[in-house]
Amino acid sequence: MQTMDRRMFIKGGIGAAAGTALLAVAGCAPSATASGKLADTANDELPADLKESDFDFSIVEREPIAEFAAEETYDIVVVGAGCAGVPAVLTAVEEGAKVACLQKEAVVSANGNGCSFVAKEHSTPAGIKRWRSDWARLNDWRINNDLFDYYVEYAEEAVPWVISQGRSVGIEPIEFLTDSSIRYDDGSVVAVCDATQASNQDLMTALAQKAADGGATFYYETPCVQLVQEEDGTITGAIGKQKDGTYVKLTATKGVVLAAGDYMNNESMVDRNMRDASMFPLCLVNHTGDGHILGILAGGRMAPLGHARQIHTNYIGPFMFYPFLALDVNGKRFCNETIPMSSLNISMSATYKPEDRGIHYRIFDSKTEGAVEGIPGVPPVALVGEGSAWMDPETVVSGNTLEELCEAAGIPVQEGVASIERYNELCAKGTDDDFGVAGSDMAAIDTPPFFCIKGDVGISGINAGIMVDDRYRVTDGEGNPIPGLYAAGIQAGNPCGGINWNMPGGFSNAHIFTAGRYTVIHALTGDMTPSNPASFDSIADSFIGEDGGYAWDSPACATAISVW
């Protein structure tokens, strides 16, 4: 990561072409003097949501740029080529618009692989609202109802559209499921469809190429360093900095969409907004909050705390659902093991030091039946070993004795064995006197060989950005939309609102896809109707299960949310 020098505020001004001025100071639009230059802003302070140190980690430039190697005009300018930016660009092409994208990296940069949507025709209104309420409860009632409803309303078209676009370039999802659906005790239903790609990186790379073939212009290795803003506050373009240090000015006649990712690599912003999680490893690089800063400098505001972070471990797949005994780096048990993966960091932050870097250990044995009551699927021992589809052999170790296991895993042997033996005593007693796990969720570790997952916890995303309205338009301090400026993806709003990301599986990518697509439709038309809509019906057959139907039609349909 390259550290940028701090920049001074403007102490003078430059000519404003065609009634516009380069964005210089947040919170208010630049005002023109009688001579047509920007007013002196040397004494202005940064907005409350920014600090001087934020710019040490960002490519955003605050001194107005007056000379350009090229000036071009487009209908739409997108900042960022990821899971929001690429659908935005491809939608603009499909809608017949002229579009350009400024991308900081040399290639497309996309993350994740899952996405979901609600099949509204197969759901009931009460089921959808109860489902939303259940998710709100899991997030201390802090979810943004407008953004959740946006996902319900438009992901049903946007996700099938992304899948169909992928198929058009030879990329097929690897899994289709409906088992996140719920049939409530009052008869209300929410029909949830989940699709998994092998890699969103591969998918978005292929879709970006399709957009380029359709006429879109991608400026790779050309980060957006500044927005262009008129005197009345309207955003009318973006400025990119090319590899050779020259600048290109892209005028946007319909709108600019910020889709530049999160801020996990901006140490100043992390320290201020999520210090409790700063000890955990970061899964991404070069995510320095550039879009956040650009939006705030345009008059936007940062989403209020908390900022929901996505927590992932290296033992995903079925292992997310097993409450294995958890030991810390010192071989001590440290938590109630039924904590969902997405919240494991909360317990760890109270007992771990930054140098521990999220390392912990999950222990299980070779029982083949009834290992843990009430957990469906194959026993965990069947998922490890040579040829395992779920576990990296370097992550799972085994031993024929508890001492051998601890030695192989790197757990302090004396402490680790003592912790396991204490856990086995509690299992025999049937009650957890130490951390309160229900006896039905505990299984003694007594059948060799024994196994240990050498786990880690990392931050894969910070789902909080600049505030947006119910059309993903960036809003100012009064809640009014800033004309011409949208935000999409992980840097838009705060749909979860909680400390950690406890939202529907696949929601993250789906709301990112959806906002990327529909911000462009709204910017171009003022409406929310695509010219060539996709639909659930167009891909419905892919979701039919082995029994010939959907999970929401089955008597075995889930009756409550499963959080992982």
UniProtKB/TrEMBL annotation:
Domain of life where this protein originates: Bacteria
Keywords: FAD, Flavoprotein, Oxidoreductase, Signal
Location of the FAD-dependent oxidoreductase 2 FAD-binding domain: 75-501
Keyword Membrane: no
Residue ranges that the Swiss-Prot or TrEMBL entry lists as coiled coil: none
Signal peptide: 1-34
Tagged with keyword DNA repair: no
GO molecular function annotations of the record: steroid dehydrogenase activity, acting on the CH-CH group of donors
Alphabetical list of InterPro entries matching this protein: FAD-dep_OxRdtase_2_FAD-bd (IPR003953), FAD-oxidoreductase_2 (IPR050315), FAD/NAD-bd_sf (IPR036188), Succ_DH/fumarate_Rdtase_cat_sf (IPR027477), TAT_signal (IPR006311)
Essential cofactor(s): FAD
Protein name: FAD-dependent oxidoreductase 2 FAD-binding domain-containing protein
